[in-house]
Design brief:
- By secondary structure, the protein is mainly β.
- It has two domains: about 1-60 and about 155-190, no CATH class; about 65-150, Beta Barrel (Thrombin, subunit H), CATH 2.40.10.
- About 10% of the residues lie in helices and about 30% in strands.
- It has two helices and ten strands, in the order H-E-E-E-E-E-E-E-E-H-E-E.
- The chain has helices at about 20-40, 150-155; strands spanning about 40-50, 60, 70-80, 80-85, 95-100, 110-115, 120-125, 140-145, 155-165, 170-175.
- The strands form two sheets. The chain has a six-stranded antiparallel barrel.
Length: about 200
């Protein structure tokens, strides 16, 4: 499969395992082509040992790090749906905002929030799936605050996950873009496939 069909000056040859038919090959080739076009930011960082749960080719939210740290921090106190934050946050008029909370297994959950009585307090719309931890015997629950555009900008597609000897995990990746999968379920050019009710060429 050549993308574009007319070829190019600097071509990349890519062999993939597990592909069984032309349709799968077409989608895989387009995914790789889209990633080459839309990949703009590369990241490399060390995570705690829970980082081992990150999987290559899966999107994660980089909740806390050097790339975007303005509205990131940890939860200092929680009372029902009222949450106290380690950092002040600012709401943008007309936008919906949320906290992306980091779970102990390395996953995240997004919870919609509204302003509290001061800039380090927010009110959650619902109780998160995992209880927020604010004690001192382990890491406090970390958060990332922002509107939808900011959270989307923090999505990273994992490339490699490398456990270290010091109980940390090195993770590399690049910016996620929904258009990586723009051509999924698009019929491949130059071939015809049966839908089970015709000969595939009508």
């Amino acid at each position: 499969i050549t993308i574009p069909e007319t070829g190019g000056l600097k071509t990349e040859t890519y062999d993939s395992k597990g592909i069984r038919n032309y349709k799968q090959a077409f989608w895989a080739a387009n995914r790789r082509h889209q990633k080459n076009i839309l990949k703009k930011i590369s990241v490399s960082f060390s995570a705690t040992e829970e980082g081992i749960f990150a999987l290559p080719n899966r999107a994660i939210s980089v909740v806390k790090g050097s790339r975007m740290a303005t509205y990131d921090g940890y939860i200092t106190a929680v009372n029902g749906l009222t949450v106290e934050l380690s950092q002040p946050v600012k709401f943008t008029s007309g936008d919906d905002h949320s906290l992306v909370l980091k779970r102990r297994d390395g996953g995240v959950q997004s919870v919609k929030v509204t302003p509290g009585s001061h800039d380090r307090q927010v009110i959650m719309a619902e109780v998160p799936q995992e209880a927020i931890y604010t004690g001192n015997s382990a890491l406090k629950t970390e958060f990332s605050f922002g509107n939808e555009a900011r959270h989307n900008a923090q999505m990273i597609l994992v490339s490699t996950v490398d456990p270290g000897d010091d109980r940390t995990v090195k993770i590399t990746g690049f910016n996620y873009d929904k258009d990586f999968y723009k051509f999924d379920n698009v019929p491949p050019f130059g071939r015809a496939f049966s839908n089970g009710f015709d000969n595939g060429f009508n």
